[in-house]
Design goal:
The complex is a heterodimer of chains A (477) and B (309). Chain A is an alpha+beta fold. Chain A has 18 helices and 16 strands. Chain A is globular. The termini of chain A are far apart. Chain B is built from 14 helices and two strands. The radius of gyration of chain B is 26 Å and the shape is flat. Classes of the chains: A alpha+beta (477), B mainly alpha (309).
Chain lengths: 477, 309
């Protein structure tokens, strides 16, 4: 009997064996899913290739991600990678993994870092300081020091500050938009107002005065506006600096949301709303998208429609604004005006940051690619999308093509130079280790004030307290 | 005796084999329960007492997270308020709508099966897709606004006016009402016609039949749908984040508790704090559920109780 059973068990799969094998198979599948994806090429994190060059002779395969962007933006990186391969034949960079542009990119990146299989390098659209402070990114200082292009001196200090936390640098602000005023020159000329850049208002008071020249109400409907004080958290950070304030003091590792300068700034905006816009934040929003891009409700951008004389935006808007054809031709850009508490005109910026995630299998080779991209690759990048190269070694003769096609080479060159110059006067931003949290709190406080739900002091005090509490947890860790 | 002993040994061995086979069949579910339910629940409970950013090991900080959510999280107050507002309006409205539809579908009419299928279809649509459909429908240039304009009425800015954003979310919640409708329909089918007929013979009109016979006998089904509805409404997430983003735009009017938890976990990388928020949410839902069950004795009619079973 026993012999026969044994014979059966050898030749047929019993139910028990099947279950056992199925369990083992399932477990193996689960483990392989949780484990790291094998990386092609040698794991050379410990290799000692000089920075700025890919390890010579070794075959290296790199992976590169971006949080999102148009197809043109994403495919541009494949061109940069192909160009890089021509000068570094041993380095193969896989097709760029292009995300959706949403928050979930950071989730995915963090999960891959935690799982031990991050990409070799990636672009970030949120502050590297916030991720660096949590141990998610490789510090780059040693690699920068011995690199061809990325030494600290080659980056505008205010912009590089967005990558620095507690003496370490966690990213390269490879390209950036800088902020300025965009204004409709034809509307100015119709009213006999000087429309050249030099004559544009230098202070908030002057801008407020100018704005009234254009603002027109039809009963409770805002038909036309000069400048509408509607901001997001990033623009508010610049606005704070223009009034002599700041939201985060990186030298002392503390937020300063409820400083006198910031309270005065919000009070100023509130007074402006009351004086020129009937004090109703929601009423303004129902009339148009008081901006240069389509709003979430699909309302036409008032600036292009000739219903808004002045808007604040990043340099990318110079390329994007023709996505909705303006009803006018002549527009120009000017520096941001200074607030009553400020003394110097500053700009702001929103970069594309290049970073190497913690645990990147090929740190040196990845950095060599980023170093190349900072000076050579950005030329291809800029030809595709007019994000301004930040590194000082990038040659100065750059022209935004989309602007040149509409307004001519000379104007486009002038605008490009203007925005690059704005980067040199950029106020330090993106320096809080809890930047996303702080941005949400800043915007929340602003909305509370503008919708009359809280006074500037109360709203900012509450935001300050929340930010400091969040910061304490990160710094304590 | 020897034969009996051999049989006993044989039976014992068979029982063991059956027991092992049974355990093997149950094993996938038990493993699932332990790995995907029990472990995460216990992990969340543990993490709620820690500072945890995913990349570094959790660090115990005692009750700090709970202290913070009680004393220093202004957005949480807004999120709780929004969620309660949403639950208080959305759940009763959905129950009423589902009950109404179920009563209509319980009628003997031609093609009723088609209507049943049609009303169930929205329940099959993923919540994100539903939210996008509503974004298109309620857009200022969309068909609903077109109707308002045709009637000479100002079209609400559903998703950019804080006064209209929550009603828009509630409308979206009312759309996939098919599951509750089917549950109500099953409850209605359980009520014997003889009871309504008897009431009719006693002179009860249609309203009295509904009020005195149908509704009391339907209360166990109402209880079931109510509990499920309350649990679901406190966990509203997909629709809210599609419509209002992680900040609950406009003006935090669509910021719900689940979104607040999500952004602390995945936007601010504060997993420990998000876990504490999750624990409190579970406790709040548990308390509400117990409250509903506690009051159920007063208003839920079980036929078995009447029979003294």
């Amino acid at each position: 009997m026993r012999a026969r059973n044994n014979g059966v068990s050898r030749t047929r799969l019993s139910r028990r064996s099947f279950l056992r094998l199925a369990g083992l198979g399932g477990g193996a599948a689960l483990l392989s899913a949780c484990g790291g994806t094998p990386q092609p090429g040698p794991a050379s994190s410990g290799s000692q290739a000089p920075a700025g060059e890919a390890p010579a002779g070794e075959s290296v395969a790199l992976s590169f991600w971006t949080p999102g962007g148009s197809e043109e933006f994403c495919r541009g990186f494949d061109t940069i990678a192909a160009n890089y391969k021509q000068v570094n034949p041993n380095v193969a960079i896989g097709p760029t993994q292009c995300g959706t542009g949403d928050d979930d990119f950071n989730e995915l990146l963090l999960a891959r870092i935690a799982g031990g299989n991050p990409p070799d390098a990636t672009i970030l659209w949120t502050s590297p300081v916030a991720l660096g402070a949590r141990g998610a990114l490789e510090p780059l200082d040693d690699l920068m020091q011995s690199s061809q292009n990325s030494q600290v001196a080659n980056w505008p200090a205010g912009v590089l500050a967005s990558c620095q936390f507690q003496g370490q640098t966690y990213g390269l602000p490879v390209t950036s938009g800088s902020y300025a005023v965009f204004y409709n020159q034809e509307l100015f000329e119709e009213r006999g107002i000087p429309a050249d850049r030099a004559s544009f208002p230098k202070t908030w008071d002057e801008l407020r005065q100018l704005s009234k020249e254009f603002t027109r109400w039809n009963n409770n409907t805002l038909e036309m506006a000069g400048f509408v004080p509607q901001f997001d958290a990033v623009t508010l950070t610049v606005w704070s600096a223009l009034n002599g304030g700041q939201f985060y003091d990186s030298a002392n590792s503390r937020h300063t949301l409820d400083s006198e300068a910031n309270i005065a700034m919000l009070q100023y905006l509130l007074d402006w709303l009351d004086e020129e816009y009937q004090g109703d934040y929601n009423q303004i929003a129902s009339a148009a998208g008081w901006d240069m891009s389509l709003d979430s409700d699909g309302l036409e951008p008032a600036w292009q429609a000739g219903r808004l004389a002045v808007a604040i935006n990043g340099s990318w808007a110079a390329g994007d604004l023709y996505q909705v054809q303006p009803v006018f031709e002549a527009w120009n850009v000017a520096p941001l005006p200074v607030g009553p508490g400020g003394s110097t005109a500053v700009s702001g910026y929103w970069p594309n940051w290049l970073v190497i995630p913690k645990g990147s299998p090929q740190r040196e080779a990845a950095f060599a690619y980023l170093d190349y991209m900072s000076v050579e690759g950005v030329k291809v990048w800029f030809a595709n999308i007019p994000d301004l190269p930040v590194n000082n070694k990038v040659e100065g003769d750059l022209v935004m093509q989309s602007v040149a096609e509409k307004r001519g080479e000379e104007f486009a060159r002038d605008v490009t130079d203007f925005f690059r110059q704005q980067l040199t006067v950029a106020t330090p931003m993106w320096t809080s280790p809890v930047q996303d949290f702080a941005n949400d709190q800043i915007f929340r406080a602003y909305e509370q004030v503008m919708s009359k739900a809280a006074s500037p002091k109360d709203a900012l005090s509450e935001a300050q307290q929340a930010c400091e509490s969040q910061l304490a947890q990160v710094l304590r860790g | 005796m020897a034969i009996l002993a051999t049989r006993r040994v044989g039976r014992g061995s068979m029982r063991r084999r059956e027991a092992i086979a049974g355990m093997l069949f149950v094993a996938p579910w038990v493993i699932y329960l332990l790995v995907f339910i029990a472990y995460p629940v216990l992990a969340v409970l543990y993490l709620s007492f820690t500072e945890y950013t995913i990349l570094e090991p959790p660090r115990l900080i005692g009750l700090d997270n709970y202290h913070r959510l009680l004393t220093n999280d202004p957005a949480l107050r807004i999120a709780v308020g929004n969620t309660i507002y949403y639950a208080l309006l959305a759940v009763p409205l959905r129950l009423l709508l589902a009950l109404g539809l179920a009563l209509l579908m319980n009628m003997r009419a031609r093609g009723i099966a088609v209507y049943r299928a049609l009303f169930y279809v929205p329940s099959l649509v993923p919540p994100v897709v539903g939210a996008i459909i509503f974004l298109v429908l309620l857009n200022p240039s969309g068909p609903v606004s077109g109707i308002f304009t045709a009637l000479g009425l100002p079209a609400p800015r559903w998703f950019s006016d804080p006064a209209w954003s929550k009603p828009a979310l509630i409308l979206l919640y009312l759309w996939p009402v098919g599951v509750e409708t089917l549950v109500f329909l099953a409850g209605l089918k359980e009520i014997p016609d003889s009871l309504r007929d008897a009431a009719a013979i006693d002179g009860a009109g249609p309203w009295q039949q509904f009020w005195r016979v149908t509704l009391p006998l339907l209360t166990p089904t109402i209880l079931f749908n109510l509990v499920i509805g309350v649990i679901y409404s406190f966990q509203v997430f997909d629709q809210a984040i599609v419509i209002g983003g992680s900040n609950g735009e406009p003006l935090e009017s669509t910021l719900m508790v689940m979104m607040h938890i999500y952004r602390h976990a995945f936007r601010y990388f504060a997993m420990g704090y998000a876990s504490a928020l999750g624990v409190v949410l579970v406790l709040a839902i548990l308390a509400l559920t117990l409250l509903i069950f506690g009051t159920a004795r007063r208003w839920v009619h079980y036929e078995a109780d009447e029979r003294g079973a």
